[in-house]
Amino acid sequence: MDTIDNVNISASEPVVFFTGAGISADDCGLPTYRGTNGIYSTNVATPLHRDNAQPERVHTVWNHVDSILRAGRGPGSAHIAIAQFAASAAPVTVVTQNIDGYHERAFRDCGVDAPVWALHGSAHTAACLRPECGTLFTPATRRNSEGAPLCPSCQAVSRPRVVLFDERLNPEVLAGAQQAMQRAWTVVVVGTSCEVFPAAHLVYQAVDAGAKVVWVNPLPAPASLVDACRGNQLVQLHGSADTVVPEILHRHLNDAVDR
Length: 259
Ligand SMILES: [Zn+2]
What we know:
Blueprint: E1 15-19, H1 58-71, H2 77-87, E2 92-96, H3 102-109, E3 116-118, E4 121-128, E5 136-137, E6 158-162, H4 171-183, E7 186-190, H5 201-208, E8 212-216, H6 223-228, E9 234-237, H7 241-258
Parallel strand pairs: 1-2, 1-7, 2-3, 7-8, 8-9
Antiparallel strand pairs: 4-5, 4-6
Helix pairs in contact: 2-3, 2-7, 4-5
The protein binds zinc ion (ZN).
């Protein structure tokens, strides 16, 4: 069993935090995708299918996204610890599967200007569904009777700018994330089972390029990742993100100050 004593992150080497729903689960009140109350284990995953991104059905997507955001209380202590670590001038990149915007908010609150690649988009941006308009806006605007925000330019209904099931990832976001992964000396995988592809493939790319992996999750790393890490250091810390991540990073911040 590994302990945080096994973790060795240099504050001068590129580190990528690859995060999933588990980073927002305990502190922030959001459901994980695959835990006991995961959204894949209930039928609520269905509203997020791409077939619902049509004017007459898109309110079901919005209702679901709104319910996720309403349940949230973030950013949590893990988001804040990562932002504080990045504020110490450590070369940090966040690659997240979450759409809640908590990493971005924690970075803003800490005055950090480090990249956050949100693979599945952001629930805080709406896109007009009329192709010839396509205006992007903040969804806190007028909504139709079913709850879908209306475009401020043309009054058409909008969709959240998130990647729905069976949709492709944004190629620019994916490219940015890939580049960070290939340069990473350490990848800290937080609160994701690494079983949702193509997002999880990024971690394997980092491992192929020689990165060390720190795994923070109540559940063990999948056997395929353990296999892939043969020859690279893999440290597994089985706990919740909001206790383990601050413990690791505060220790590394203190070490940096002591030197
Ligand atoms: Zn419009």
